[in-house]
């Protein structure tokens, strides 16, 4: 089970369907391979580190770290169902901790429902967002061989931007329905607790820190609380590839081929997309003739698709668009792990809303308990965005409101019921094999298309060389300073070369340079800029002591790159003068 988290700050260009490649101009060669190589090396490292361990389940509460970003949708759920819960987001963190035979904490996966969108979409640095920051902090605190994973669970309608949406021009609240400011949705943006004023880019970094730190602290408290419950027994699993486009439910309702509604184009207050639609367009008679013309040039939705997806007004008939290959997935991987008698993980290939997740957890756990597969006090979590990605899943009632999440629920109004039915069958199959789903067949690999220009040539000015320092750092720096150096560099796309990091902070230890921080660190930044047609300048910065304490000593900044000469690559590096 490979589970991702949402970020607006990651590299793109690796998913198989056209809709998810639009912003990256198709597949980005090299980038997908780098991601795959990293995942494989993590699996190999985990396999080689197998040893007898115990697994401990812990639960804690975390408040003030998430808000619901689509309250009008949530309110469409039945009042008696809403009354069962203390709010419109889940506030519990569920943890599976790993302890070795001596009882030492070796790693933990902690699931908490919040989007990794503390970094606004104006940020152009690669970042793991609040989940990545939580992971970084705990691994720093615990030591190098500790693994801290922070999972995204039923966070489909859950934002980390707890200040809520505000009009960026006036500071007034947005209109709560369309999320606009006097008709302009581009001004209605939600920020996190670190944001102070309009245009405050640093506020997003501060918000990421705050929301990430809260998750880290809660996770560490759960692990240290001594209240964990050990789960024992076999690890069981089920996996099936299911064609989600025509699942027929016992009541006769069925799913549809994929389609995106108008509100998909509006985006959310975590990341406004375009001004061409509102959130909450839920009439199939929606009258914007210009958009309809543009849509029909791409592909007019069939009458069958329009009826099946109602009341979603279809913007993109992605399920009927196959040029140059499928725009949205049709066949999806569904997976369950049963970890001993007391812990269950649903591998879910989409972002699922708060109430949808509650329903799916309950129906799946009920089936497992009824079959005697787990104990009555077992815990269940949804590992969102697992194994593939198929946008969002809302409840039937939320779908009717057609905000962003409903507009992005691919398989029509009965999508959630279909998933509940399928996961219940998988859960029942542990005790009753006749309930098993067919294993199915994985979707065929698609031919990769890339519309992004290849890197052809990197050069340096005459008399200079790759890795040459054009601006040196100061001779002395202190905690709280930002140390900066500029390098003659190359286009970063082929990769960092060298030790796998575009930059390092090195420390002098007994006459030898050793890596102190790399580009995964939160205190370091690597900026690249093209100069002319083939030259590049890279700026490396280090916020001394912002997250990682820095002992007095001798340091330098190092840059690593790969330059391209008409298809040939060579690696290079350069270091600054030493400084104190
Ligand atoms: Zn999302």
Largest sheet: 5 strands, mixed
How would you describe the shape?
globular
Provide the β-strand percentage band.
25-35%
For the biggest β-sheet, the strand order reads 5-4-3-1-9
In DSSP terms (H or I, runs of 4 or more residues), the helix count works out at 11
The number of distinct β-strands equals 27
Bound ligand species? zinc ion
Active site: 159
Family: Belongs to the neutral ceramidase family.
Keywords: Hydrolase, Lipid metabolism, Metal-binding, Sphingolipid metabolism, Zinc
Domain Neutral/alkaline non-lysosomal ceramidase N-terminal: 1-420
Topology record:
Elements lengths: L30 H18 L4 E9 L5 E2 L2 H4 L4 H4 L9 E9 L4 E7 L17 H14 L4 E5 L6 E2 L4 E4 L20 E4 L9 H24 L4 E2 L4 E9 L16 E2 L5 E2 L2 E2 L16 H10 L4 H7 L4 E3 L14 E9 L3 E5 L3 E2 L1 H17 L8 E5 L8 E2 L2 H6 L2 H4 L7 H14 L40 E3 L10 E8 L13 E7 L2 E7 L5 E8 L3 E9 L11 E11 L2 E8 L5
Parallel strand pairs: 4-5, 16-18, 17-19
Antiparallel strand pairs: 1-3, 1-9, 2-6, 3-4, 7-8, 10-15, 11-14, 12-13, 15-16, 20-21, 21-25, 22-23, 22-26, 24-25, 26-27
The structure holds zinc ion.
Zinc ion binds next to loops.
